[in-house]
Predict the structure.
Amino acid sequence: MNRLISAAVAAVALSMTLTATLAFPQTEAQTPFPRPPLQENCNLSHFCGIPYTFVPPAKPPSPADGRNWQSGDGIKLVDGVAVQVGGTAGWGKVCWGSPMCAWRSETNTIHVVHKPDMNYTYAYPLQFPAGIGGGVTGIAMNSKGHIFALVRTPPGQPQLYEWDENHKLVRAFGTDLTAKSHGMAIDAEDNIWICDQFGDTVMKFSPEGKLLETFGVPGKRGDWDEAKGQRLLWQPLDLAFAPNGDIYIGMGHGNESPNDGAARVLHLDKNGKFINQWFGNANGPGKFSMAHGIAVDPKTGYVYIADREEYRIVVYTGDGKFVKTIQEPNLVCALFFDPHDQLWMATGQDGQIVKLDLDGNILDAAGVGSGRGPGQFTETNYMVMDAHGDLFVGDTSQTRITEMIPQAQ
């Protein structure tokens, strides 16, 4: 990945009236990435601080159109609402550079690789059976220290793999479980939970691998409407548990399909009973265009949302009240609170894991960037930490899990 901020983006950034200072160590990028204000800056958008709605196009985009498809009419102000007709949701021709505008035009062009100053070594003890392919789209650990991986394998291959505390492969199971796997977690009773993004379900398995419960209806995307008795999901991507067992499911991966629904977080109790939900397209601060990853602070119960393509973390209380937005200099692919209540972030295609404080300041980094060599990643994503303090990080774009081993200082 390019380690430089493109000249065009740098020019735009320098023209913006941003006053915040850098809050992370010096990186290899030649142009510092300015940290935007935590609130919306209405100087950056023609339609900022007002409701936004997307009207689907009469003709859906073909696969050849790709993400840059823009045959719509852009955004127009209609009775006080910013209405976009057609195109890809959030790609309005005049709405950009603000949290009010999903999928702003400069996303995926800013890449920063931080100095890997954590003195980690890298190993690959978790071996997959020969012939297994597909990216690692989830990783979790049970109470015995066994590591589980969810893999986006081709049809006919198992999708779940388990290694014991000595890194010996115990079993491979769950053939053809999902239409597209994306995220997993293990609860306090060692039940295994996995997300099926394109199947629009979250499945709960016993520690032995027996399906116990399915949330959502396979292949039927929609809203969870408790009043109507309608319990549908929309592109579930990741889930996390509160200390009391409550379940938070992050949904909405808008860059892989026309955005026919807003990104959202569904809050259930430990028995799967509906408590609350909140949506990313709400007006004003607290907006998020994607819930690519989700983590719960075990001390405060705050919910941290990885809004990947908007380079930000959006924080809510456990009951769904907006707390703050944290802008980052990288794609925010996944978030993780380790057993010591330390927050970590995966930077995706920039090929690193970074340690953060709770205000999002980057404290340290590990991983040496994009690639397939030792310590490199094609795309860092979900992670766990074992009893020795070693981090195990899945690579979404290759069948590999990296063990990051801290060395004595």
Q: What stands out?
A: Residues 1-48, 63-73, 88-107 have pLDDT under 50 and may be disordered. The chain has one domain: 120-406. Residues 193 and 204 are 5 Å apart (CA to CA).
